[in-house]
Amino acid sequence: MSNSTYYVPDQSKWPILASIALGLMAYGAAMTFNAMTADRESTGPFVLGGGFLILFYVIFGWFGQQIEEEAQGLHNAQLDGSYRQGMLWFIFSEVMFFAAFFGALFYVRVLSVPWIGGEGAKGVTNMLWDGFEATWPLLVTPDMKQFPGAKGVIDPWHLPLLNTALLITSSVTVTFAHHALKDNKRKALEFWMALTIILAAVFLYFQATEYHEAYAELGLTLESGIYGATFFMLTGFHGFHVLLGTVMLFTMLIRCFDGHFTPGNHFAFEAVCWYWHFVDVVWVGLFLFVYIL
């Protein structure tokens, strides 16, 4: 294939399967949350789980196909430019995704809670919630029997601080790995990548430990009021992104072992590094605005 020829792939099943997976995930999540609110049984978790399974099948199948095409020499500079634009737009969409949740947190803390507490021209003290006190984090609910509030919040200077150090360190190690690849130092590349994956796995373990502490000891759950809801939506989605990023890093490590990348041709590796740095930046924002402030 000429380097001036744009590669046009054959018709593929992956886009339609990805759409089905995302639709099942959205529908299953809605069913699950509605059932939790109504305290009844639901098939939502099975639908949600099926969506996840199809999505992971699509991810491994689609990316595997791209790897095979690259190994066959079907990719060129023009396609590489398209990949870079696509990855940048993907990260931009992720920025907007988290911006929506940070915006919800801002609205609740800066506007809604003070208004209900009587501040400003829109203050409605005791009209919506008798005896309400505008404090944050909000650990009480209007109906403490049905939706008991949390007993406390996660100590930011314990596991969250440790997780912050882990992710920042992993951002440094993946940068070392990238520079090792550019310098064609294969052993250093494999070492730094493996260390990055270990740091990511330890982060996920501590995050799971923190969630257990929140549910079992503090009563901090999705049903413990607006603080619990915003806390788990932000940290939960971030944790899911870390999990996906860890899978990406592991895939890159396997490809490094197989010698797939060269100093001048390694955008797949570079794209994962971009994604990982984005995940790290989001966590710093979470640590500041969810845990500390």
Q: Which key terms come to mind for this protein?
A:
single chain; 293 residues; mainly alpha; Helix Hairpins; Four Helix Bundle (Hemerythrin (Met), subunit A); elongated
Low-confidence stretches: none
How many β-strands, per DSSP?
0
CATH topology of the largest domain: Four Helix Bundle (Hemerythrin (Met), subunit A)
The arrangement of helices and strands along the chain is HHHHHHH
Shape: elongated
Number of helices: 7
Overview of this structure, please?
By secondary structure, this protein is mostly helical. 71% of the residues lie in helices and 0% in strands. α4 runs antiparallel to α5 and α5 packs antiparallel against α6. The longest helix has 40 residues. The protein is elongated, with a radius of gyration of 23 Å. It starts with 13 loop residues before the first helix and ends with a helix. The model has no long low-confidence stretch (mean pLDDT 88).
SSE map:
Layout: H1 14-38, H2 44-71, H3 77-116, H4 159-182, H5 186-218, H6 226-257, H7 267-292
Helix pairs in contact: 1-2, 3-6, 3-7, 4-5, 4-7, 5-6, 6-7
